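cron nightly-structures :: item 1 of 1
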Amino acid sequence: MMTSHDYIRKQISFLKVQINKLKLHTLSRIQASQVQGGGVPTGMILPYVGTNIIDGYLKCDGSQYNVEEYPILYDVLMTIDETIRTTWGEADWETTFVVPNLTDVYLRGAGVDIGALQDEGLPNITGAVYGDGYNRANSIFWGNNGGALRSARYYPGSNIANYSNSGAGNNASEINIDASRSSTIYGKSQHVTPKNIGVQYMIKT
């Protein structure tokens, strides 16, 4: 007589076999699609300078599609982490799915977090200049400044020179610059946008 433990073990073994069969079936479907598509694998994203959409491709604009209509592409996109692909748009990822929206977005090589969107940003600009209020007839700025700014003190008949005077009666002041105070886009990245040309990004179905 089969015990409850034996039954559970049997069911687990059965499920493992079915999962392996499903994996093999999915892989065969993807491989067949690659052959039919002239060697372009399903899920490949390509730039296109035309205004039309090529047969066998979908525009990467965040649109929603039915799983039954594009089952192989769905299988590929399901390999992306759920916490990432569910940010692309509204879909239940059971009967519907969405393609990534690459409008005004650059592609980058990512070792991890494939499909994740990285916010735009620019390197921050910071710095400081310091002042000496001892003699306002001359420039109040002196050296030893930091960041993006540099300053020096002028006095009659001289060139720019570092100056520091800590004597009694001197009042020091400081002027800082921090571009992120004017826009949060500064300081969010360590790169800037390169010169570019607009294209359509399409994904192979």
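cron nightly-structures :: done
Confidence is low (pLDDT under 50) at residues 152-172.
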